[in-house]
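Treating backbone geometry as a discrete language has practical consequences that deserve illustration. The sequence in question and its structure tokens are set out directly beneath this paragraph.
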Amino acid sequence: MSLEFLDPILKLIPGIKKPLMPLTFKEKLKWTALIMVAYFALFSTPALGVQNASAQQVFQLINVIFAAKIGTLITVGITPIVLASILLQLLQGSGALNIDLNDPEQKGRFQSIQKLIAIVVAVIESFFFSFTFLNSGLIVPGFFGLVVIQLILGAVMIIFLDEMMVKYGITSGINLFIAGGVAYSIIAGTLTILLPSAMQQLATPGATAIPQAIEAFGPLFVAIIVMLISIYVYDMKVELPMVFSQFRGIGGRLPISLLYASVMPVIFATSMEIAITSLAGGVLPHFATSNIAGFIGYYTSQPSASGGNASILSGGLMYLLSINSFSLSPITSGYGAYFSYLATGTSPMLIPWGHSPSGVNLAFACTLANSCIPIPEWVHVLLSTLLLVVLCVVFGKFYIEMTGQNPKNVAEQLQSVGWQIPGFRRDPRIIEQILEKYIPTITVIGSIFVGLLAAFANLTGAMGSGMGVLLTVGIMYALYQQLENDNTLAGYPALDRLLS
């Protein structure tokens, strides 16, 4: 498909000019710092008319994955950039678009189209979040239009900050925005939640004061454990010997990391869960007398920050399958109460064919013994973890196919640059057969591992969330490899020690 017809529209979109001369590493660090200051300024500016949206549990994971802070100017975060990139990659990979990215003119058009799609997505998502806030009772009456405008402006500013980071910074803005947001949540959570809780425990007389004060820092300890495990696992790989066919004696190794698909499978799986839960949260509460709706998702009405009532997912099939919908959190309730809740607590499951009177609100119907059955929370833990792992495997295989990291594409890439496996003919089919023994298996194992690690971190209340820690470690590991390959770290020993 030819896209030249979009040129008149693309010319109207402003852009960030590239630097006239290559920047030194120190200059890139300065620009990176300035861009991050601008990002955190948006991060800290609440949207006028939105009250306490970040406290909603379903939004907290969105904050981590999409470098957002729900209720502020960057409520939408990097979602438009990510969705626009994925859409164009799928169209390019499927052959629907035929753009030669080696041609500067076509590459520039591709980037402009991606920016245009990102802006359109930003507008749509700004309306979506605003309607979600409205349905949840989080918008002050009369401020809906103003909230939409603020979210659109904030999202567009993030798009241009990311473009500036790519051209003037040390890596992409998406990566540093995510890492910065996670680091902020860990530090802020430790100082504002964990530390005051520990001090309160120490001020309480009794022999259990010190153990309880140490327990208060449990979410931080879990985050550190997940971080150390992630660092260790990122360095686990299988290395296949390779030789350069045209020059004897020159060889190397092809590393296939255990996290071959990185943490993308768990990002896709969690994003899908959040999208479905958010959509259902705006629809199902309007069917408060439907047994089928109650079976899918049972919502209870709770007071919101704005003085109204908000619908909270408290039971049903969606609750059982969601790993982010537990009623208690170890960060706020403590591990003793939290694990007791997981062991003995229950959630209501409304029976679709139950005998509740027609037209009766489900909140009342679930008080009838023949309308609802209690489901233990430990069943919730098992089902939600199993579903997350299965989705991670599915999305892991999907990701390597869509990004050209499957055995066939990798074999063709190795063949094109003259690499072959010693002892075998120089034939891409031979290389593909050998890679088939490793890549699919490693993809499945790695996807299962990140799914279980993310589930463990979420269930144990890791500060910054398990997803956030996994993402941050992956980002910093990739940044370290990038700088190391560019020999940048040789002149900056302090930075080398920090990243390594």
Notes: Residues 104-135 form the longest helix (32 residues).
